[in-house]
Amino acid sequence: MRRIETPHVPHGWDAGLFFEETTGTLLCGDLFTAMGEAPALTEHEIVGPALAAEDVYDATCLTPATGPTMRALAELEPGVLCLMHGPTYHGDGGAALRDLAGAYEARLAVEGVRLHGPVTPSA
Q1: CA–CA distances in Å: residue 73 to residues 41, 55, 70
Q2: Which one of 33, 39, 92, 114 is CB 3.0 to 4.6 Å from 85, fit for a cystine?
């Protein structure tokens, strides 16, 4: 069992996850939070439900480090993602992490423009 520090991912400076290396299982904490009833195990797509929950709770820290941190987790290529608030996912965990990272990066880009206006390179 390996602890991986993930400050502010998904939230809180003290965030971290556990990876069980023998089985390729990532204990995801609040990453991929889903709402409502769900089976205990799933092989279905989990990014859409996570984004729907984010729309309601707005709980993930969207920072420039969020996407790269999630992409680093994806490099572990977990085959199982154990969600704290959702079903245990069996499948391509690396792809799910990369997809969620991309969605959060897109949201950060939109939020940055909304809050600060477009960023233009300095001359």
Answers
A1: 21, 23, 5
A2: 33
Cβ atoms of 83 and 32 within 8 Å: the answer is yes
Average pLDDT of each block of 10 consecutive residues along the chain (123 residues)? 96 95 97 94 97 95 94 98 97 98 94 58 51
Residue 110: per-residue pLDDT: 87
Q: How far is CA 55 from CA 58, 60, 84, 88, 94, in A?
A: 6, 10, 18, 21, 23
In three-state secondary structure terms, 19 is strand
Question: Tokens 């995801």 — which residue?
Answer: 28
In order of 44, 59, 65, the CA distances from 107 in angstroms are 23, 13, 13
Integer Cα distance of 27 and 14 in angstroms? 15
- Residue pair 43/91 in contact by the 8 Å Cβ criterion: yes
